Amino acid sequence: MDNFKTDLDADGILLCSFDVPGKTMNTFTKGALADLEAIANRAKNEAEIKGVVITSGKSNGFCAGADLDDLFGGGWEVEGEGEAALKATFDVAFEMNRIYRLLETCGKPVAVAINGLALGGGLELSLACHYRVIGNGPKTQVGLPEIKIGIFPGGGGSQRLPRVIGVQAALLAMSEGKSFKPQEALGMGIVHELVEAGKEVEAAKTWIKTKGDPVAPWDKKDFKIPGGGPYHPAGSQVFIMGNALLRKQSYGNYPAVINLMHAVYEGLQVPFDTALKIETRYFSKTLMTPQAKAMMRTFFFSMQAIGKGSGRPDGYAKTEFKQVAVLGAGMMGAGIAYVQAMAGIKTVLIDRDQESADKGKTHCADLIKKQVSRGKLTPEAGQATLDLITATPDYSLIAGSDLVVEAVFENSELKATVTKAAEAHLADTAVFGSNTSTIPISDLAKASARPKNYIGIHFFSPVDKMMLVEIIMGKETSDETLAKAIDYVLKIKKTPIVVNDSRYFFANRCFIPFTAEGLHLWAEGYSPAIIDNAGRMTGMPRGPLEMMDDVALDLLVKITSETAKAEGDAYVPIPGEKEVAAMVADGRLGRKSNKGFYDYPAEKTATKTLWPGLSEKFQPTILEADPALVEELKKRMLYVQAVTAARCFEDGVITDPREADVGSILGWGFAPWSGGIVSLIDAIGVAKFVAELDRMTAAYGDRFAPPQLLRDMAAKGETFYGRFGKVKTDKAA
Fold first, then answer.
1. Residue 731 — very low, low, confident or very high, per pLDDT cuts 50/70/90?
2. Distance (Å, rounded) from C-alpha 417 to C-alpha 406?
3. Cβ atoms 436, 415 nearer than 8 A
4. Active-site option among 130, 192, 363, 458
5. Using 50, 70 and 90 to split pLDDT, how confident is the model at 733?
């Protein structure tokens, strides 16, 4: 066998070590499943085998689940619709269930020795084993995270986990895609035994020799579902409440969540073999949805490619960053300094005076203390990390830096001043990166003596949590500078997307219309509660008004002021813009001042409430919304962002649909169920999207007007991935 190494010991225990050749982590391919089937048949047919132990032959994990490259490339995805396509998908998808079940019913006790990460299909294999031992390793965890990529557990997980830990706990774990550390897994009953790391196989063999039971609990006549099944008084309440809870969490946007509930509810009422078929039918149905296909493409394939630096130019040696300077020790600059130090980079944190610089370092210290308190850093490692940061107003300490990241206020004159001050101490090979969120890089680069070394490196707040970094190419930025910038972003464990220069770039250019549409609706007389509720129902993390509070209203005022100054007479104010400026003048800055569109109570457990004074700015006249109106509001908020993304492609600001989708989700939380801002258009269909935009333009204004690019694509029947994705594929080939 290619994927498992086997060894039969003197006690008749067959040790099977999962070790996929050429891979750093085990995943299930069709070849690995075939090997597992051979193991199951051997255990069933060879009398000298008294039991089976399955473990990993790799040091870094047990199994990360199914190999989605193999899943797509191996013919698991079936084109078309209807019952025939569903059956074809079912036949392929059922293979994992069939083989796991073959192992489970082989007639010999099977134990699993989990010696690392066991996620998705890895945990599902473990659940199909009669006994589960887990090692107490620092990186060991188990979970069923499939919901995060638009599907749900399809290898028996939706049927076995509720029968192991009960319906309520299982549904919560699967619908949230939660992972559990060894002690948590033991406490929940997911595993039977917790042992010292390295002792997993020994414990598994001991169980086989002393207690080995070859029959799964659900195959015994006296089996009862923990906590009760669908028709048990307690169990029925779980489904009634669970249906409401899942609807509240997902707003019906995720077919996987709905189909998971169906599979669990129906599967628990029938014999186990029938339950597995029910699971596979709903799993196959989910696989065929546009949401699942888009989410799998974005969250798995595209995320992996971009996370490896797919946008990096070839021909340049990798840069190792020994020292990086950060200009500006506010929340953004301090956050950048923190992630650099966590990546082991010596950091010079500069501000106008020592007190301001120290304040930034204190913020870094607070973040490091959190890591220590959570057990992710030892106190010694935390102090060593903090010691990498030098807080100072002295620009001469920049000398020797490989990169400078400027993170001062959004003001062109200020940025020009600090650029010149920093470059006076930089080597000719060093890179200067601006964290501007709106001002064109080519304009800022005019203050630089080396515009080829000048590039945009746009972080998102809070830096310690937000994974995206938008790298912006100026007109004179060199490919070598781009390569260095990508090396830096990967070094600090962020995800880089590459865009070309334009005011607002890609992320803010697409995100601002979402908040602006909230202002349009406010000015039109819609109740703020309706606006934000509809905004959340789109799948965005917040409604547009509360999102503005989170970003900070004074920052939005600064951005509009800078834009108005740059555009002059061409600038068109947004309805509600003056009202927001007045709120800022009155000290309503958003969440950071505990008052903005909402009032935020001092007690963190208390609920925020809409500020009553909003009605004095615009008197609400629309206080109720029927389902049709809600759908129209949702469409306005999503489509105004998506049409802006199309304009970005037409203008050459962004050229790769993968980066557009990943950037939209990681950058501002664009509805994850869609797979991203470009996948949304492709799923709707470009021609249908254009027709809707024409209708909305007539109803609401030119901000919805489709660009010529969309009209051309509609006429040719093109998609974004078909038109722009092919260019990237050809270039890579």
1. very low
2. 11
3. yes
4. 458
5. very low
Domains, in order of start, for the chain:
4-266 (3.90.226.10), 323-502 (3.40.50.720), 507-624 (1.10.1040.50)
Query: Mean pLDDT across the stretch 282-300?
Result: 92
CB neighbour list of residue 86: distance below 8 Å, 6 or more residues apart:
281, 284, 285, 288
User: What does DSSP assign to residue 591?
Assistant: G
Closest CA relative to residue 319, chosen from 338, 341, 345:
345
* pTM of the complete model: 0.91
Lay out the sheet containing 179-180: strands in order across: 118-119, 142-143, 179-180
Contacts of 633 (CB under 8 A, 6+ apart): 521, 526, 530, 531, 534, 625
Q: Is 379 exposed, middle or buried (0-12, 13-18, 19+ CB in 10 A)?
A: exposed
The residue with tokens 């549904």 is 171
Residue 403, number of CB atoms within 10 A of its CB: 26
Q: Is 458 a catalytic residue?
A: yes
Contact 324, 340 (CB under 8 A): yes
Residue 76 predicted with pLDDT over 50: no
Tell me which amino acid residue 701 is. G
pLDDT tens, position by position, 534-584: 999 999 999 999 999 999 999 899 888 888 888 899 898 999 999 999 999
How far is Cα of residue 219 from the mean position of the Cα atoms in its chain? 38
For β-strands 142-143 and 4-8, DSSP reports them as: unpaired
Candidate from 76-90, 490-504, 633-647 with smallest mean pLDDT: 76-90
If you count them, how many residues does the chain have?
Answer: 733
Over residues 492-508, mean pLDDT: 95
Decide if pLDDT at 77 tops 70: no
Q: How far apart are CA 324 and CA 308, in angstroms?
A: 22
Q: What is the mean pLDDT of residues 175-181?
A: 94
Residue 352 has pLDDT above 70, yes or no: yes
Phi-psi label, residue 554: left if phi above 0, alpha if psi -120 to 50, beta otherwise: alpha
The burial class, CB within 10 Å (0-12 / 13-18 / 19+), for 81 is: exposed
Which residues have a Cβ under 8 Å from the Cβ of 210 and sit 6 or more positions away? none
